[in-house]
Design a protein that fits this description.
This protein has 138 residues and is of the alpha+beta class. It is built from 3 helices and 5 strands, in the order E-H-H-E-E-E-E-H. The chain has one domain (2-126): Thiol Ester Dehydrase, Chain A (Roll), CATH 3.10.129. Mean pLDDT is 90; it is low at 131-135.
Length: 138
């Protein structure tokens, strides 16, 4: 997914604020689910919530106002009740990494009880994209 860095997300130095990267990762996860399942809200309406239990980021190069960033993600692990995702962030058209990250998520009910990853959820998470939207700005 492509995301343009907007002015509200930069600091006084004109650099993308470190906390905003987490927001961009979230947006890419939402799009990942949307492309495989439809609406993220539909999964939540069915009683399956995906919560972040761990996040690790490594900042490699600064991003600046008006940069267009490509956020790619890969589902690297589907466990009994958790999933792990790896991310890479580049400026569009450049090979150098801006940032890398991993997140681990637990599947929980609305009441906060840990849920096992069902065969249906596993299939949804690992299926190919339903509609290709590469290149769109998020």
């Amino acid at each position: 997914m492509h995301i343009r860095v907007n002015y509200a997300d930069v600091d006084r130095m004109g650099l993308l604020h470190h906390s905003v990267y987490l927001k961009y990762l979230e947006r890419s996860r939402e799009e990942y689910i949307r492309r495989r399942h439809g609406a993220y809200a539909a999964m939540e309406d069915a009683g399956v919530l995906i919560v972040v239990v761990e996040a690790n980021l490594k900042y490699r190069r600064p991003a600046r106002f008006d940069d267009v960033l490509a956020v790619t993600l890969e589902l690297t692990e589907v466990g009994a009740a958790t999933i792990r995702i790896a991310y890479e962030v580049h400026r569009v058209g450049e090979a150098e990494l801006v940032a890398t990250a991993t997140t681990r998520h637990a599947l929980v009910s609305r009441e906060g009880r840990v849920l096992r990853v069902s065969d249906e959820v596993r299939a949804m998470l690992t299926r190919d994209e339903a509609v290709s939207r590469h290149g769109e700005l998020g």
